Amino acid sequence: MNHSDLHRSIVTVYVGPKQYPFYLHKGRLCQHSSFFEKAFHGSFEEATTGSMYLEEDGVEEFIVFEKWLYSQKLGDLKEPADASLLLVKLFCFADKVGISELQNAVLDAIRDRATGQHVSPTAPITTDETSRSYGTYLGGPPLVLDSMWGTSPEPEKSAVKYLPPATSIAIQYAYRTTLEGSSLRRLLADIFAFNVKVETLEQDILALPMEFIADVILICPAVPTP
User: Fold this and answer.
1) Residues 134-138: contacts with CB within 8 Å, 24+ apart?
2) Domain ranges of the chain
3) For the segment 49-107, what is each residue's pLDDT rounded down to a tens digit?
4) Which of 103, 141, 154, 198 could pair with 94 in a Cys bridge, judged by C-beta atoms 3.0 to 4.6 Å apart?
5) Is 168 in contact with 218 (CB distance < 8 Å)?
6) How many angstroms separate the CA atoms of 91 and 106, rounded?
7) Which DSSP string do the residues of 87-98 spell out, in sequence order?
């Protein structure tokens, strides 16, 4: 099978408990993902049947992945508070299937939403680590957060007083699904450490993973004081 045949060949990926079908070009899918490359070009059953079942993954994040696969853009997402869990799940999915470009795009989207720098849905995703990437953010100034973290976009009102439920659940999901040292964990902890007054979050802290709280405490001494 030549290169053009690979990009014309269609595979079916059934996602979620209800096995919602997605029809994707095998060549494009395997080009970006080592996980799909091994499945559809190896000795596994998927290579013979041209189909795969991902019952543990969510349809919602796979829809965003499909858009990204063909456009290299995340597309239009929900409002920030609702998008936080979706973005975290999308990062974990990208980690599972070995797509670092998508992971970088998600980290950028989380950072941009946290700082109120909402990117146009049609803007191309960049993975240039010297410009917009997560690595550049780490050494940057304190962030000014928006409704993803329950605060005003105005700098003088930027101290977070509560976490929206969706954001708290997103943090729990991130720490339950990723490993220690994950760039997603570090980004979430950094955003929290730079902007959250812990004394105002006693009830929220009880619902957050202890590993997350430990990461925040480790970061806090490095946070510049006003």
Assistant:
1) 134/104, 134/107, 134/108, 134/183, 134/187, 137/111, 137/187, 137/190, 138/186, 138/190
2) 8-56, 78-222
3) 999 999 999 999 999 999 999 999 987 775 545 688 999 999 999 999 999 999 999 99
4) 103
5) no
6) 6
7) HHHHHHHHHHHT
